[in-house]
Design brief:
The protein has 26 helices and eleven strands. The chain is α+β, with helices and mostly antiparallel strands and about 725 residues long.
Length: about 725
C-alpha cells in the first residue's frame, strides 16, 4: 500500500486531504464501530415516535383539548369499541349484559379513564341507526408512546368474540397506533425494494461493482446514524414516525448523490494520470467543495421547517438536517479514506466490459453536449415551451382544499379504519365532527342557558348539547352543519369563538384544530420562504460570484415544483388514479404536507442545481467562454444528475408504495419533482435561460466581486482567467 503512505506532492495535496487520508484504515474501523453502535442505539426508534403532530401547541384548540382531558375525560374519548350484536338488537338483555361487563372491564384497566357506553348513558349518538351496533367510549391517557403501550396491552383481550357480541377496536388512539405500525412495516419493505434496484442502477452508472458499492455504503451509514440521532431526540421532544420515511429516502438519495460525484471525479483524475492520493486531493478541492455547498443548501431548506410549531414538520427538519450532515460527512471523510485504500482498484469488477467489447469509444457525455447545443440554438423556444408546460402542469393546485388527516390514510382492511367507516355510514350525526366548547369561570344555570341559546342560533350550528358542569368549568358539544372539517364547520369555529359569553371560552374539535393549524402555517410561511430564499441566494452567490445566477436558481427551482403540486391535487385530492394507486381520496390535502414537500423538493432541486452550476463555473473561470462553459457543464454532469435523480426517484417510489396515503403522496410527489427537475429544468430550461442571459449571467457589481473574491468558494482550482474576469461586465446576449 505504498500509495497510502506516499508523501504529499506539493500543493496538490492540501491539509484537509492529509487529515482524512492520514490513517485511512483507522478511519474506516472507527466508522464501522460507530455504525454498529448506531444500529444498537437506533433500534426500535419507530416505537418511540408519535403518529400525530399536526396541531399547534400554543393554539386555543390545544389548550381546550388538554383542559377537557383533565377536567372532563369523557368529553374527549380517543378509544372506541364497536360492539356488533349480529342480528339481535343492542337493547337485547343478553347483549346489554355482555356489553356492561366489557364496559366494567375497560374501566378497571390501568391508563384508561372516562369510560362510558350506550348501555350506561343511552345516547342516540352511541347507537347505530339499524340497532345492531353500539359504542363503548373511553380515554387512554398519556402521550403517543404511553397510549400505544396501553393499547397494545388491552386491545388483544377486547377485540374479537365475547359471547353474543363481536368487538372491534377503533378511535383516534387506535388510528394513530395503526398508522405507526403500518409505516414501520412499509419502511422495511421499501428498503428491501430500493436497495437492490439502487445497486443495479449504480453498477450501470459506474460499470465497476466496487465503485457501485461505495455510494450504497455511505447511504447505509447515513441512515443508521440518523436513526440513532432520532432515537436520542425522542428522549427530549416529540418526533413524528413519518420522519422515518424521509430518513431512508434522503439517506440513500443524498449519500448516493454525493458519493456519485466524488467517485466520478476521482476516476476522472485517475484516468488523467494522477496518483490516488493526488486524485483524492483534487477531488476534495473540486467535487468535495460542491458537495459541502450542496449539503448546506439542502439543510437550509429543511431547517426552514423549524419555524413551524407543529412537531410533525419539526420532525422532518430534525431528521433531514441529521441525515444531510451525516451523508455529507461520510462522503467527505470516509469515502476519501476508502478511495485512497482502493486506488486504481476502484475500477475493479467492471461488469460492462463485455457490452463494450468491440464498440467504438466515444467521449463521455457527447450526447448531453449535443443536446445542450441544440437547446442553446433554440433558447427562446425551449425557455418558453418548458415554462408554459410547467405552469400548466401546476394549475390544478389553484383548486387545492386543505383538510386534516384521518383514518382514511389507512388501507381499507385496517381495523381502526373499519370502525370509523361504520361510524360514518351507520351512526347518526357527524362522528368526530363535533366542536367542544370549554367554559371556565363561575356562572349560573341561566347564564349557561343563555349562552347555549346564543350559539344554537348561529348560522353554521346544527345542534348544541350540554352543558356538563363540574365546579367552575363546563363544556358544550356543538354539532356544526355539513362535513366534519368542511368549510361550514370551519366557519362555525369562527362563529362560536366570536360569540359573547359571561365566562372565558375556548373551542376545540377536529375543525378547530384544522383552523388553528392553517393559521399557524399561514403566519410562519413567509418566514420559512424568506429563510430559504435569502440563504439560497447567499450560498449560490458564494459559489458563483454572480448576482443573476442565484435569482435564476431560486425561480427555476420553484418552477420545477409546479408539476408536483399540480399532481398532488389532481391525484390525491381529486381522486384520479386512486384505484391504480390503491388509496382513498378525502377531497382535500393535509395542511402541513405541501409545506413539507416544498422544503424537501426545493432542497433536492438545489442539490442538482449546485452540481451543474459549479461545473459550469469551473469551466467558465478557465476559459471565459460562456456558451462553451454551459455546454461543458451539462456534458460533464447531465448524465450523472439524471442517474442520481433516477436513483433518488426509485427510493421515493419505494416509499410511495406505502399503504398510508400521506406517505404515498410524499414519496410519489417528490419522485415526480426530482425527475422533472433533472430531466426538464436542468436539461432544458437552465441552459436555455443561461444562453438568453449570455455573459451578463456572470455580472456582479464591484463591491460584491471583491466580497466573492475574499469569501467565495469555487469548484475550480485556479483563479479566474483574465478573459473570464473581463467577461464579468454586462455583455449583449450572445
Amino acid at each position: 500500500m505504498s500509495e497510502v503512505n506516499s508523501p504529499p506532492d506539493g500543493p496538490r495535496v492540501g491539509g484537509w486531504t492529509r487529515f482524512v487520508t492520514a490513517r485511512p484504515r483507522l478511519s474506516l474501523l472507527v466508522a464501522l464501530v460507530l455504525t454498529a453502535l448506531a444500529v444498537f442505539v437506533g433500534s426500535g426508534v419507530a416505537d418511540r415516535m408519535g403518529a400525530g403532530g399536526w396541531e399547534d401547541p400554543a393554539a386555543q384548540s390545544t389548550y381546550a383539548t388538554k383542559a377537557l382531558e383533565r377536567e372532563f375525560p369523557g368529553s374527549q374519548p380517543n378509544l372506541l369499541l364497536l360492539v356488533d350484536s349480529g342480528r339481535a338488537s343492542v337493547d337485547d338483555p343478553a347483549i346489554a349484559a355482555q356489553a356492561k361487563r366489557l364496559t366494567a372491564r375497560l374501566a378497571d384497566e390501568r391508563g384508561v379513564t372516562g369510560v362510558g357506553s350506550y348501555w350506561r348513558t343511552p345516547s342516540p349518538q352511541l347507537r347505530a341507526k339499524d340497532g345492531h351496533e353500539a359504542l363503548i367510549a373511553a380515554r387512554v391517557t398519556g402521550d403517543d408512546k404511553a397510549a400505544g403501550e396501553t393499547l397494545d396491552r388491552i386491545a388483544p383481550t377486547l377485540r374479537g368474540a365475547h359471547g353474543p357480541v363481536r368487538v372491534s377496536v377503533g378511535g383516534p388512539v387506535a388510528v394513530r397506533h395503526e398508522i405507526q405500525t403500518t409505516i414501520g412495516e412499509d419502511l422495511v419493505r421499501a428498503e428491501m425494494i430500493a436497495l437492490p434496484i439502487t445497486l443495479v442502477l449504480l453498477v450501470m452508472v459506474f460499470g465497476s461493482a466496487v465503485a457501485a458499492l461505495l455510494p450504497l455504503g455511505i447511504g447505509i451509514v447515513a441512515i443508521l446514524g440518523t436513526n440513532a440521532v432520532l432515537r436520542g431526540l425522542t428522549e427530549v421532544t416529540d418526533v413524528s414516525v413519518f420522519a422515518m420515511n424521509l430518513t431512508t429516502a434522503l439517506g440513500l438519495g443524498l449519500a448516493i448523490d454525493y458519493a456519485l460525484f466524488i467517485v466520478r471525479r476521482f476516476r476522472e483524475e485517475l484516468t488523467a494520470g494522477a496518483e490516488p492520493l493526488q486524485a483524492v486531493g483534487t477531488t476534495l478541492r473540486t467535487a468535495g467543495r460542491t458537495v459541502l455547498f450542496s449539503a448546506l443548501t439542502v439543510a437550509v431548506s429543511l431547517a426552514a421547517m423549524l419555524v413551524f410549531p407543529q412537531y410533525f414538520l419539526r420532525s422532518f427538519a430534525y431528521a433531514g438536517i441529521a441525515v444531510v450532515l451525516l451523508a455529507a460527512g461520510a462522503a467527505l471523510i470516509l469515502l476519501p479514506a476508502a478511495l485512497v485504500l482502493l486506488g486504481h482498484r476502484v475500477n475493479a469488477l467492471d461488469l460492462r466490459r463485455l457490452m463494450r467489447r468491440g464498440a467504438p469509444r466515444t467521449e463521455p457525455g457527447r450526447g448531453w453536449a449535443r443536446a445542450a447545443s441544440l437547446v442553446m440554438r433554440r433558447a427562446p423556444v425551449f425557455a418558453l415551451a418548458t415554462t408554459v408546460g410547467l405552469v400548466l402542469l401546476g394549475l390544478p393546485f389553484l383548486g387545492v382544499k386543505f383538510g386534516t388527516a384521518d383514518d382514511r390514510q389507512l388501507p381499507t382492511t385496517a381495523e381502526s379504519r373499519i370502525v370509523q367507516q361504520h361510524l360514518r355510514d351507520g351512526f347518526p350525526g357527524s362522528p368526530g365532527g363535533g366542536l367542544e366548547v370549554l367554559a371556565e369561570g363561575r356562572a349560573t344555570h341561566s347564564q349557561y342557558a343563555d349562552y347555549r341559546k346564543r350559539i344554537d342560533g348561529l348560522p353554521g350550528v346544527a345542534r348544541v348539547e350540554g352543558p356538563l358542569v363540574k365546579g367552575d368549568a363546563a363544556y358544550f358539544t356543538v354539532l356544526p352543519k355539513g362535513e366534519a372539517v368542511g368549510q361550514d364547520a370551519q366557519r362555525a369555529v369562527h362563529e362560536v369563538r366570536a360569540a359573547d359569553a359571561p365566562f372565558r371560552t375556548s373551542v376545540t374539535g377536529t375543525a378547530a384544530v384544522l383552523v388553528d393549524s392553517k393559521d399557524a402555517i399561514g403566519d410562519r410561511l413567509p418566514w420559512a420562504a424568506g429563510i430559504i430564499a435569502v440563504v439560497t441566494l447567499l450560498l449560490v452567490f458564494l459559489l458563483t460570484g454572480s448576482v443573476l445566477i442565484p435569482l435564476q436558481a431560486v425561480v427555476l427551482n420553484a418552477l420545477s415544483l409546479t408539476a408536483m403540486f399540480g399532481a398532488v391535487v389532481w391525484v390525491f385530492q381529486d381522486g384520479h388514479l386512486s384505484g391504480v394507486l390503491n388509496f382513498t381520496s378525502t377531497g382535500d390535502i393535509e395542511t402541513t404536507l405541501p409545506v413539507l414537500m416544498f422544503c424537501v423538493a426545493f432542497g433536492l432541486s438545489m442539490d442538482y442545481g449546485v452540481f451543474l452550476l459549479s461545473r459550469i463555473k469551473e469551466e467558465y473561470d478557465h476559459t471565459g467562454d460562456h456558451p462553451h462553459a454551459v455546454r461543458y457543464g451539462l456534458q460533464r454532469t447531465g448524465g450523472l444528475i439524471t442517474a442520481a435523480a433516477l436513483i433518488l426517484a426509485v427510493v421515493m417510489v419505494a416509499i410511495g408504495t406505502s399503504r398510508v396515503a400521506n406517505t404515498k403522496m410524499l414519496g410519489l410527489g417528490i419522485a415526480l419533482a426530482v425527475l422533472m427537475d433533472a430531466m426538464i429544468v436542468r436539461s432544458l430550461l437552465v441552459p436555455a435561460v443561461m444562453r438568453l442571459t449570455g455573459r451578463a449571467t456572470w455580472w456582479a457589481p464591484g463591491p460584491l466581486r471583491r466580497f466573492h473574491a475574499r469569501f467565495g468558494i469555487s469548484e475550480g482550482e485556479s483563479a479566474p482567467a483574465p478573459m473570464a474576469e473581463q467577461a464579468r461586465e454586462p455583455q449583449p446576449v450572445a
